[in-house]
Amino acid sequence: MEKKIEIIENIDPSVIYKDLSHPASGGICVFIGAVRDTTQNQKVNSLFFEAYEAMAIKEMEKIAAAASKQWNLNRLIMQHAVGDKKVEEPVVLVGASSAHRDDCFEACRFLIDTLKEKVPIWKKEFFDGNDEVWVTPHP
Amino acid sequence: MKILLFGVAKDIVGNQVLEEPSFKAKNVAELKQELITKYPEFAKLSSLAVAVDEKYACDDRSISAENEIAIIPPVSGG
């Protein structure tokens, strides 16, 4: 399996097809997480992401290895952005390609769920009126 | 002992790195206890993990000055 795992400033979703297409893959599945303008009825202006980069990469490698054991994947990608991100900007991208759709659909769900649970990355929300808060996890 | 801090842990301590010569912890559990004693705000977090050499560490994992130690408050990527 070929893989691409990165912590980067800016995610470019326009190149994802090229990143995941493979002669043996009949299915490609991608999840992109973006900045939403509202959380718990409060207007969000932007998010800030910080990573413990060296460890985050290692944890993402472990998740990718677990996915490749469980499903038959040809290509896999996991990218997370860091820094200030505005509403609608992409902040996380995971995807996989496989011969048939079941493998890449299931792997994609596992990749994002496990990333959110394990990878040492933190987000701070910035609201109207200069309020800011480090986010504690919620679904 | 030098400890890396991220997210809300940075705000609690007021620095990116905590250098605490008075910490005598020999394992992760003792480190968490010393941290909470000095900074009680850590007790209010929904979870408090410690990474040793870029891996999540169990409470009984021994630590020394040679290890890279980081406090991992609740993660919120994605």
Characterize this entry briefly.
Chain A has 139 residues and is α+β, with helices and mostly antiparallel strands.
Low-confidence stretches of chain B: none
Q: For the record, give the distance between the C-alpha atoms at the N and C termini of chain B, rounded to a whole number.
A: 31 Å
Return the domain count of chain B: 1
* Strand segment count of chain A: 9
The fold-level CATH name of chain A is Aldehyde Oxidoreductase, domain 3
CATH architecture of chain A: Alpha-Beta Complex
Question: What would CATH call the class of chain B?
Answer: Alpha Beta
Protein name (chain A): Molybdopterin synthase catalytic subunit
EC number (chain A): 2.8.1.12
Organism (chain A): Zunongwangia mangrovi
Pathway (chain A): Cofactor biosynthesis; molybdopterin biosynthesis
Verbal overview:
The complex is a heterodimer of chains A (139) and B (78). Chain A has 139 residues and is an alpha+beta fold. Chain A has one domain (2-129): Alpha-Beta Complex (Aldehyde Oxidoreductase, domain 3), CATH 3.90.1170.40. Chain A has three helices and nine strands. Chain A has helices at residues 16-20, 53-70, 101-118; strands at residues 2-8, 27-34, 38-39, 42-51, 73-81, 83-86, 90-98, 121-127, 132-134. In chain A, the strands form two sheets. In chain A, strands 3, 4, 6, 8 and 9 form a five-stranded antiparallel β-sheet that branches. Chain A has a four-stranded mixed β-sheet with strand order 1-5-7-2. Chain A starts with a strand and ends in a 5-residue tail after the last strand. Chain B is an alpha+beta fold and 78 residues long. Chain B has one domain: Roll (Ubiquitin-like (UB roll)). Chain B is 23% helix and 22% strand. Chain B is built from two helices and five strands, in the order E-H-E-H-E-E-E. Chain B has a five-stranded mixed β-sheet. The longest helix of chain B has 11 residues, at 28-38. Chain B is globular. Chain A binds chain B through residues 33, 49-52, 54-56, 58, 80, 91-92, 112, 115-124, 134-137, and chain B through 4, 6-8, 11, 45-46, 51, 54-56, 70, 72-78. Chain A: Its EC number is 2.8.1.12. Chain A: GO terms for molecular function: molybdopterin synthase activity. Chain A: It comes from Zunongwangia mangrovi. Chain A: Pathway: Cofactor biosynthesis; molybdopterin biosynthesis. Chain A: It is an enzyme of class 2 (transferase). Chain B: Keywords: Nucleotide-binding.
